[in-house]
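Schema walkthrough. Field components (list of strings):
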Amino acid sequence: MNALLAWRRTLSFGFLGAFMAVAGLVAVPGDAHAQLMVDINNPTMEPIPVAIPVFSAQSQVPSRLPEMTKMGDDMAGVIAADLERSGLFRPLPRAAYIEQGLVPERRPRFPDWKSIGAQGLVVGSVNFLADGRVEVVFRLWDVYGQQQLTGVKYQTTPDNWRQISHRVADAIYQRLTGEEGYFDTRVVYVAESGSATQRVKRLAIMDQDGANNRYLTDGRFLALTPRFSPSSQDITYLSYFNNKPRVYMYNIDTGKQELLGDFDGMSFAPRFSPDGSQVVMSLARNGNTDIYVMDLRTRKMRQLTDAPDIDTAPSFSPDGQFITFESDRGGGQQIYVMNADGSGVKRISFGKGRYKTPVWSPRGDLIAFTFTSGGVFKIGVMRPDGSGERMLTESFLDEGPTWAPNGRVIMFFRGYPSRKGQAGKAELRSIDLTGRNERKVPTAGDASDPAWSPLLK
Amino acid sequence: MLSNALRMKFIVLAAASTLALAACSDTDDKAAMTTTPPPAQSSTTTGPSVTQAEYAPGSQGDLEANAGSRIYFGYDEYNLDDRAQATLSKQAQWLKRYPNKSFTIEGHADERGTREYNLALGARRAEAAKRYLAGLGIEEGRLNTISYGKERPEIAGSNESAWAQNRRAVSVVQ
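Field assembly_structure (string):
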């Protein structure tokens, strides 16, 4: 009935090793119902109800069956949590499910799912193979259309189950929204602890859902403003190593650090170019801050701005043609755009208040920024020509936006006022581009300066 | 340590100035922000009971007792007011008295700016102090600068008084 294994392709799996994805297709076309689709741009849309039963478990090695049973349960949980946090989907409680024991090889009893209001149904299985790998199969069903919308088979090592779950969630998100997903990503950030006056700041990295948290530096030196390379396992950030604030590059795989901004004076506010070949940053020399760009191959620095003002927080456009940055050359901080060679500087923000930390969307269509006025901080977006300005958040301190790789979700950090001599709390938050679905991002402790990774490969 | 005792005294006095500010807090916040007098500096608050002899000559405690190690800035400003200039003049005299000593001048900002900008602002403030000392004849080689932006406040607090005390440049004896 359901012809699986129509075609195969092998995907590289970065540093975690190789796995295989196999797309499955249904032979039976759906009926005349309109196909299930999520309108991601509608700010008033109701989340789509979806059902995600536990993945059925099998094992070619009998002793591994309990492990598979748990994995099938956990995977359904991770997928449901991803979809729920996007604000676009509403996973229905398992207790409501009527049909039990679903397997991807069999068509579900659609009336059972229709009657509980599910519009989408995810059916999956995990199977421990004799060679030690795990095979994961899932199908996404349109309950009303009674047809399969997508289906994929993966083979991987058991320890990759979480990443595969995120990939399944990404496949579902992509099929239902028409946009690339962002669940199989990580976030590098600054983990904060200790008192306000002696705050300890360590680099940390975690999955976008907060799992697999890992500290990259030990906290002896302040670590600030980490950013991901778009093309490698490198992070560039500011470290106060040996009391010299300088830009460093840190390799996530090897833990190796390298001093990038070894110049007379502080180097800071680093960010990779979209092809990963350059790092743009600020240098403060004799008290004056300008923007420079370093070619990572030759290690040559080129000065891009030369003004007696503070020019900082540079960010490339995704095509590498332009750089947006903030400058107080007009009085207070405002956002500017220039050509990547430093020519053609144009101011793009003109509202009443200060515009800071511009970050170009990976889609190129918007620039996210921090805005302050009247003692309030906001995160907003505008088009690269300065039009279409929209504020998304507001609080005592919202700062430092970073984009999900699909340009649909913005993460930032929120600081709270210090009380009774204690350091103010700091947390990561995310918000949809429509201004909906503001959420706290789970972290082990206080957190700031988030940077979203590209989709993992 | 005695320098810690001094610091405590400084904080107590700073708290007193907070109360003074609170007393007139029905005025516009912005006006208060620009007219807040900088908190009392250790050089002017050292009591007669504290004598120079209690510090090692040329030490940080010596600087704090006899010249003052901190100068303060207005919101988003890096110009030196009369009070800051007076403190820096005493610091210059102090450095001339101890020709083997040098300073690391730390520039700091309050928490009400973004991280990168505050790093740049701290660099401006440290540089302003360095320029002034150099203008009084101190060799630039004895004047290092470092910016901490908003990372190292002196006072934990989210109010005008704490912010005024955190917008500072601190001379640290090397």
